[in-house]
Amino acid sequence: MNLSDHIKKRMKDNFLMKRNMPTQRDMKTLNTSSLMMNFGSFYIPKMGQSNPMGEDAHFISKDHQTIGLADGISGWAKKGIDAGEYARQLMNNCLVVLDAKDREIVYPQLILEEAYLNTKVDGSSTACIITLTGESLNVVNVGDSGFMLFRNGIMIYKSSTQQHGFNYPYQLGKSNHCDDPRVAEEFMIGVRAGDWVVAGTNGLFDNMYASEMEVAMKVIGEAGCLEPQVLAQVLADLAFENSLDYTQGISPYSQAALKEGYPIPIKCGGKPDDITVIVAHIVPTQGHTLVLGNIENSYSFQPYLPKKSPTVNVMDPIATKRCKPIKKGMKTLNERTLMMNIGSSYIPKKGKSNPKGEDAHFISKHHQTFGLADGVSSWAKKGIDAGEYARQLMDNCLTILYKKDMEIVYPQLVLQEAYSNTEVNGSSTACIITLTDESLNVVNVGDSGFMLFRKGNMIYKSSTQQHRFNSPYQLGKNSHCDDPSVAEEFIIGVRGGDLVVAGTDGLFDNVFASEMEVIIKQIIGTDQPELLAQILAEQALENSLKTEGVSPYSQAASMEGYRKSGGKPDDITVVVAHILPPNHLL
Prior knowledge:
- The protein is α+β, with helices and mostly antiparallel strands.
- Helix 1 (3-13) packs antiparallel against helix 3, helix 5 crosses helix 6 (228-243) and helix 9 (386-403) crosses helix 10.
């Protein structure tokens, strides 16, 4: 199925209104939303380019409470093609689609797909579209543009990066080497009044650490001028200065380069690039004016010369922190204000020669950490039990936690060492989640993952890493396998009463989020994670044995052009964590 047919099918069947996505009943219109976003943006093109407009583009639609940004891929310049024109046309088409449809509820994925079809010029770009729907951000993202979410001055979430290789992001375009919107990550994340969204192209995120942004927000706030436009300009100015610093310390870009094997000082300091920053402040609609239809939408690509805010000097406090990323605000086990009560359930697939199945998981209540792995079943054709690989990997994670008696757990380091210590043949996905004060710290490889529920509603789902349909990223020592460097690492804020439902694909291939919501709402108010894990696992088993109807697995297969119906029999692992104040667990 080509992309045009794919989009028409999505529109006809209205996939986003089915069980796996929020329904119109759950998603508030602009007129009924309790929250709104106030916006500001700033753009600094890279100096010395033949094209003074640069290659970034962005739009802001206050009417639709939606923003978007795109970063044209500079490699096209070698062919005499201005990728900035592609980015500008793509963003302009997004805005045209928004206005033409007069949408009360915005679905970013459909906006991006239609805008992509209408973009005819040569070139390619990344893309990120974010809309506020009720109390959640609805996001679609392709490539290495993205956003961070800040709460109480602390970064609580950073969107992941999609790359084919170092400095080679996923990119939308019509050329054979480009991607299309089907590769996009789609997800929702809950927000509250007072949160700040900082979106940007990689010109921002390659040159500024989250800790530097936190300092900037604090300093601007103390100066009494923390407004979206001021913050956007200051962050862009700081990123610009850092991008020109070839001698001082480590930047996010140089750190990523070092991780990929490029020696310092070959990739030292910052990375000169176009810099786009959009800042959105989440505020209550009550007491704020939101006049729909009368606020001008903006589509921005005009260059600005970098200049400093005359009322704010943020360089000095940040300059002392340039040498390395700062891990602050992470409390030890004894200092936590929240804890997880954790339970699990495991149902191996029936009829396997190995009664243990191929899933494995661990729970360390002491370290407030759990992990799960799904052995890749195709190894059975070679007489290898991939379940043994998954079990050894999880055992090694648990051994590392207790051997090092970690007060603060860094999941990526745990996974890296456990991977190095796992010697048996096979491969598996892996997901490790730890609670650090009021945030989940996550590392994930493949199609295991988790959902976060608040008041019975799903507000976030981790993304899936796949080489192609039904071929997830997988850890192993074989040449066709991956290693932990491909892992997604992120943090996401949580609050008391939240529920984390983690699982292997045996759960998520067979149970929609809306089905989980129904089950969770039936037992909401009770602290029984073990019972909930068991009920969800049994529901997944029941759905997996169905041969008719729509499941998450059959729906995903249909989108890839395969004809499948019913569920997918598989090992099923479910881990449920109930977020509670520590005194509830005594």
